[in-house]
Amino acid sequence: MENVFGGFGVAGALIYIALIILWMLVPVFVFLISKRVKEMRDIARESRIEIKELNASLKYLKRKFNETNEQQT
Fold first, then answer.
1. Residue 3 pLDDT greater than 60, yes or no
2. What are phi and psi of 14, to 5 degrees?
3. Separation between Cα atoms, residue 73 and residue 69, nearest integer Å
4. Is the pTM of this model over 0.85?
């Protein structure tokens, strides 16, 4: 160990170890971020489908309302 970190000292060795630990955590963060993005994409897709269903229901109700108004007049 003394030959590897001879020029850096204890502080350099600690920084080096911290960088190794952080580099090992990078795949974990990438996995978590990609998982969250996938969840957000699925939520957006479901919301789009629900909005289409609501629009179809509104068009149906509007058509029925107009038909009943026409029949009453």
1. no
2. -65, -40
3. 6
4. no
The answer to whether 13 touches 5, Cβ cutoff 8 Å, is yes
Whole-angstrom CA distances from 19 to 15, 23, 25 are: 6, 6, 10
Is residue 30 pLDDT above 70, yes or no?
A: yes
Which of 3-7, 34-38, 43-47 has the lowest average pLDDT? Answer: 3-7
Q: Secondary structure of the chain in the HEC alphabet?
A: CCCCCCCCHHHHHHHHHHHHHHHHHHHHHHHHHHHHHHHHHHHHHHHHHHHHHHHHHHHHHHHHHHHHHHHHC
